Amino acid sequence: MKILAPTWKNKIYSTNEEVHEQREKTLARAVSAGFPSDAITKLGSYFDGLIIPGLFKIFDGGNDQGLVVKDESVIIVTEDDFDPSDARKQLGLIASGRRGLSIDEDDNVDAFDAANLAKIALGAFSSGGSLGKIAMRAGAEIAGEVISKSNRPTIDDLPVLPQFDVPFGEQTVRYKDVDDFEFYIPEGEENLGFLLFTTAVSRKQKKIVFSFDPGENRKQAAMEIARFIESKLDDKAAEAEEQEESMRTANSPSRQADALSAPDELLKWKQLLDAGAITNEDYAAKKKQLLGL
Predict the structure, then answer these.
(1) Closest among 126, 272, 149 to 204, alpha carbons compared
(2) Total Cβ atoms within 10 A of residue 161
(3) pLDDT (tens digit, 9 = 90+) per residue, 53-75?
(4) What is the pLDDT of residues 4-56, one digit of tens each?
C-alpha cells in the first residue's frame, strides 16, 4: 500500500509530536494516493487516538521497565519478566559509594561490602506483605552472620536503607506526592542507571525504583526526563511556598486590622449617604470596595 502502513502501525511513538508528524505524512500520502475522504478521516482518527494528554515522553528503559512521563505524574511499567537482581546489585554498589563498577566484574568484595550488599539485595526491595518482611529479615540475618565472622563493623554500622518498591504492572507516581527524587546516570562500567522517587505512603517512606540500561542513547533521554521531572518538582515547591506566603499575608496583623476596620468605614459612608453628602452610586461603589465584592 502506498501509505506504507507497517511503518506507522507497528511503531511505538515516544512523544505526541512524533504522532503528529507521522499523522501529517500519512494523511498526505493517502491524499496523493487518491484515498476516499472517509478513509482519510478514519486514518486521522487513528492517530488522534494515539495522543496522550499531557505527555512529555515515553521511555523504554531496556530492562523490562518503561516510563510514561506526563505533566502531572509518571507511570512506571514493569513487565512480568523483570528480574530485579541486577538492579539490586548495582544499587548496592551505588549505596556503598562504589561508582563506575560493573556488577559482573566486581568480584573483589570484602566482608563489610558483602554484608552491605546482602542487606540491600534481600532487604531493600520488597514485594510487600509477609513475603517482603521475610526477605527483609533474611537480609539482616545474612548480613549479621557475615559480619560476625569478621572483625569489621557490626550490623548497627551498616546504613539503614529505605524500602524499595518494584511492583509488576503499572505504578503511578504523582509529583505532588514526591518528597525526594534521585537520578543516577550510569558511570564507567555500570550496568544500570536509576530514577528513584521517595513518597510518603501511610506515614511510611518508600523508594519507587525505575532502572534503565545505558544502551541505545538512553543516557541522553534519561537526563532529559530527569530535568523535566526536577522542573515539575521545583514548580511544586514554588507553588507550596506561594501558598504559605499567601496564608502568612492573610493572617498578618495589618490584613486583620483592615478586615476589622471595614465595617467602621462602611458605617461612616452610610452616615454620609444619609446626610446627603454622597450619592447612592458613591456609597455602592465604596461598599463593593470595602467588602471585596
Answers:
(1) 126
(2) 16
(3) 999 999 999 989 999 999 999 99
(4) 676 787 788 999 999 999 999 999 989 998 999 999 999 999 999 999 999 99
| Amino acid present at 291 | L
The structure's pTM equals 0.63
Q: Which residue has the cell 523483570?
A: 82
